Recover the amino acids of this structure.
């Protein structure tokens, strides 16, 4: 052996061990995901029996009583909504691996026509951003050259038409309602962003925003399918772990409404005959803050008591897309005048959605 030769280091064996370990982890990920799906189907199919057994059997509550119906609503809806939420968040966690923030920003940069608003609103549905991300998203998108109106289309669609809202609407009310909500919500995001873009209000953005240079997009490797599945599970831990308190609170409120609020009262306040119910619902929703997971059970309970679909969906959309906390966060980036224009245009769109839903359903 010469001075320039190196002794064997065993790198070949180490590499083989690494590959074997990776294959073992991949197989476990597929097996865990498949077993979890089978367990999900089994649990979901037994929800009705479980709710009746626990409410009227174990707890000995009387069917059709106020307390019995409230408890049964809570016992049935809690696992149902959690199961739906877990499945949809897992699937969208996998989908999100195809839509990184850098890729989203690159797709939107340099586009300024109506099709860009359509693309931005569509991307808002499948990307993992909520209203809490408003400030960094505004900064990142605007400094990357994304027009102001296009950015608004994205930010309106991302929290309002997210996968959680669509999945829960589909599971609780059927595909017709979910599809109508999707199309009308997209229309609000697209038209509102387009109008804001045409108004030329860039000078109402805080000047310091445009003084920041766009951060270069970092290189990232394309994940394989086991890694995408792993990201789906990480998404479940992160999102479900954050929203479950809102979910339980929403179901508890819904249970109270379902069990104790008289149908005649809600039908009179939020029924189709009361034309003012939609504007009132939007005004009530703005000071509140919640997310789709917390609002859907309340929507379900209100509908069960005779409230009009358009009225309660307008209420939900105003809570999600026009919440006062979001307006406070946006003030760091936008002038008060631009926030007022944004809120006014979106509110008009939500009012239109409410009236259209009341006319169609």
């Amino acid at each position: 052996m010469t001075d320039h030769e190196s002794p064997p280091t065993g790198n070949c064996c180490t590499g083989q061990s690494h590959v074997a370990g990776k294959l073992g982890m991949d197989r476990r990920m597929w097996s865990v995901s498949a077993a979890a799906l089978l367990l999900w189907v089994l649990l979901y199919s037994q929800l009705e029996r479980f709710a009746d057994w626990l409410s009227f059997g174990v707890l000995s509550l009387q069917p059709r009583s106020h307390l019995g119906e409230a408890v049964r609503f809570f016992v049935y809806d809690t696992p149902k909504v959690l199961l739906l939420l877990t499945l949809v968040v897992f699937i969208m966690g996998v989908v999100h691996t195809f839509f990184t923030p850098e890729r989203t920003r690159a797709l939107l940069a340099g586009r300024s026509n109506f099709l860009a608003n359509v693309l931005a609103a569509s991307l808002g549905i499948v990307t993992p951003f909520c209203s809490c991300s408003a400030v960094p998203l505004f900064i990142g998108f605007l400094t990357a050259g994304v027009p102001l109106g296009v950015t608004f289309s994205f930010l309106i669609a991302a929290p309002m038409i997210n996968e959680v809202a669509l999945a829960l609407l589909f599971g609780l009310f059927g595909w017709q309602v979910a599809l109508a909500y999707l199309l009308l919500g997209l229309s609000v995001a697209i038209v509102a962003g387009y109008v804001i873009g045409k108004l030329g209000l860039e000078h109402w953005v805080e000047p310091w925003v445009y003084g920041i240079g766009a951060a270069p997009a970092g290189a990232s490797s394309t994940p394989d399918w086991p890694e995408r599945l792993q990201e789906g599970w990480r998404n479940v831990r992160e999102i479900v772990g954050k929203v479950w308190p809102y979910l339980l609170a929403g179901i508890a409120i819904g249970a109270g409404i379902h069990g104790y609020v008289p149908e005649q009262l809600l039908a009179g306040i939020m029924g189709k005959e009361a034309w003012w119910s939609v504007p009132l619902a939007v005004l009530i929703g703005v000071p509140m803050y919640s997310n789709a997971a917390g609002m859907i059970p309340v929507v379900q309970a209100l509908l069960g008591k005779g409230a009009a679909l358009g009225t309660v969906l307008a209420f939900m959309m105003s809570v999600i897309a026009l919440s006062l906390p979001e307006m406070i966060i946006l003030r760091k980036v936008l002038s008060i005048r631009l926030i007022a224009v944004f809120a006014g245009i979106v509110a008009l769109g939500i009012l239109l959605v409410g009236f259209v839903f009341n006319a169609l359903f």
